[in-house]
């Protein structure tokens, strides 16, 4: 009878082993391998003492499982860092939530959380950025210069340059950096100053009108002193005006050497068998011109107009008047043209070409003709060139700007003007220019472009208007309401109500 209880006890022990949670977990973890640890028959029995061993094994396996189900420290973010309580941790169980703070130079994006969580996939989420770079204020555009800014966020740079004739004073580049837990530029924006020139050189026996400062495009004009009583007057030799300009290194230099004040005196010219027809005077000084003509029966060899030069000589040389003969001709005379080849005299039968100057032509429209010496200083078919009037408009064209100083109906060589742009526009180029003649200015006439601020405002307004229009179209024409059902036979029914204008409203049912 005692054997029966013993068998029951053994059966109970075997059942307990079979029902052991440890064994079930072991089977789940190890599959068929765990089952093989029983009797091999799948009955769930196990040798004595094996139950305790299984418990130990399961505890170890559970520890391994827990060790595997942790996240590594989250990756380093450029814009944020972990709070101090999480910064030293090396492992994070699934479900752990960590908190960040934005780094200096960054700020929290409204509506975004500073938390990230270790997920079951052992990844940190969310992944989108939650801090954004702070922005420095716009540094502003320097007067007579330009600022180049592509971004205003922390770490960005602003580069400055000046218009022609101006130079940077200060640093040409500043950077948006962290200052006192905020962001600001690391330096003061520079300014543009007009390039200076040394005072113009003084000249002997002459002077120029002085001004407080000599800067880019300043023009000075020289004049000669009055000669002492009884002495010959001084003549201004050279260009009377010079102006401050730039050399290859953008330093201020004068446009050329100053003129000279010197006594220039040419001899009284006389042409035998000829006479003066203009330019009479007791004294012939610098740039004094005289015109000659020959007496009847004589022809001229050389030019009929000569001018006194700074070296006290006439140029071209004085002409001569030769007696007219049957086999010779002097050079044909032509207005607004030239003789090719030009000689002092030609033999009878020789031919030359007469060519008109630019914008000029002969009466028949030709620009060049051939004539022949017929003797007796007579040429065949000599004609004069007629020139079309050429008007050089000296007034500069300034779109979105105006002349504020020096404006005239017509400008003479050496005149200067000052230009400014209308409100909302920025000057690109020099604000002061000098007229060089033939419709040309130095430097070139500047242009006025829309200011960067105005362009930014226009862009913002455009984006807002487009967004509002798109939203209205969506709400008016594409926003839909309806229902979707599936019956017991898996038959689908979709009822949509298209939200369109009342006159076009319709309801569609799709099956």
Automatic annotation (TrEMBL):
Gene3D superfamilies: Complement Module, domain 1. Residues 69-133, 134-194, 195-263, 264-323, 385-450 form the Sushi domain. It holds the Pfam family Sushi. The chain crosses the membrane at residues 450-474. InterPro entries: SEZ6_CSMD_C4BPB_Regulators, Sushi/SCR/CCP_sf, Sushi_SCR_CCP_dom. Disulfide bonds join 294-321, 421-448. Keywords: Disulfide bond, Glycoprotein, Membrane, Repeat, Signal, Sushi, Transmembrane, Transmembrane helix. This is Complement component 4 binding protein alpha. It comes from Anas zonorhyncha.
């Amino acid at each position: 009878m005692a054997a029966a209880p013993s068998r029951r006890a053994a059966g109970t022990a075997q059942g307990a082993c079979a029902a052991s949670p440890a064994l079930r977990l072991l089977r789940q973890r190890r599959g068929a391998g765990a089952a093989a640890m029983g009797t091999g028959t799948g009955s769930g029995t196990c040798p004595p003492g094996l139950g305790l061993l299984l418990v130990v094994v399961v505890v170890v396996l559970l520890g391994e499982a827990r060790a595997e189900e942790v996240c590594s420290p989250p990756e380093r973010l450029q814009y944020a860092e972990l709070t101090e309580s999480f910064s030293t941790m090396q492992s994070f169980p699934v479900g752990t939530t960590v908190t960040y703070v934005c780094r200096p130079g960054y700020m929290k994006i409204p509506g975004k959380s500073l938390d990230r969580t270790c997920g079951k996939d052992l990844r940190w989420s969310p992944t989108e950025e939650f801090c954004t770079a702070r922005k420095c204020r716009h540094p502003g555009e320097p007067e007579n210069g330009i600022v180049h800014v592509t971004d205003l966020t922390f770490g960005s740079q602003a580069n400055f340059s000046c218009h022609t004739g101006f130079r940077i004073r200060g640093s040409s580049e500043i950077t948006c950096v962290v200052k006192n837990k905020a962001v600001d530029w690391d330096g003061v924006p520079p300014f543009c100053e007009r390039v200076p020139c040394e005072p113009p050189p003084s000249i002997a026996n002459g002077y120029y009108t002085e001004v407080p400062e000599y800067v880019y495009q300043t023009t000075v004009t020289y004049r000669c002193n009055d000669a002492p009583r009884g002495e010959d007057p001084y003549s201004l030799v050279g260009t009377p005006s010079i102006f401050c300009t730039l050399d290859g290194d953008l330093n201020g230099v004068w446009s050329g050497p100053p003129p000279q004040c010197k006594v220039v005196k040419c001899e009284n010219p006389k042409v035998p068998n000829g006479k003066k027809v203009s330019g009479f005077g007791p004294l012939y000084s610098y740039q004094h011109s005289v015109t000659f003509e020959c007496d009847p029966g004589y022809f001229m060899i050389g030019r009929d107009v000569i001018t006194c030069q700074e070296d006290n000589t006439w140029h071209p040389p004085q002409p001569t008047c030769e007696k007219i003969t049957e086999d010779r001709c002097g050079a044909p005379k032509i207005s607004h043209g030239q003789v090719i080849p030009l000689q002092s005299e030609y033999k009878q039968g020789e031919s030359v070409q007469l060519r008109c100057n630019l914008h000029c032509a002969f009466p028949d429209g030709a620009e060049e003709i051939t004539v022949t010496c017929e003797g007796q200083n007579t040429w065949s078919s000599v004609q004069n060139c007629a020139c079309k009037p050429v008007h050089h408009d000296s007034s500069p064209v300034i779109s979105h700007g105006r002349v504020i100083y020096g404006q005239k109906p017509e400008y003479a060589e050496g005149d200067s003007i000052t230009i400014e742009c209308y409100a909302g526009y920025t000057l690109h180029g020099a604000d002061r220019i000098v007229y060089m003649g033939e419709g040309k200015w130095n430097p070139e006439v500047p242009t006025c472009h829309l200011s960067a601020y105005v362009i930014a405002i226009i862009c913002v307004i455009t984006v807002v208007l487009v967004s509002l229009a798109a939203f209205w179209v969506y709400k008016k024409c594409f926003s839909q309401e309806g229902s979707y059902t599936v019956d017991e036979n898996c038959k689908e029914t979709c009822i949509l109500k298209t939200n369109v204008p009342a006159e076009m409203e319709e309801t569609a049912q799709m099956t």
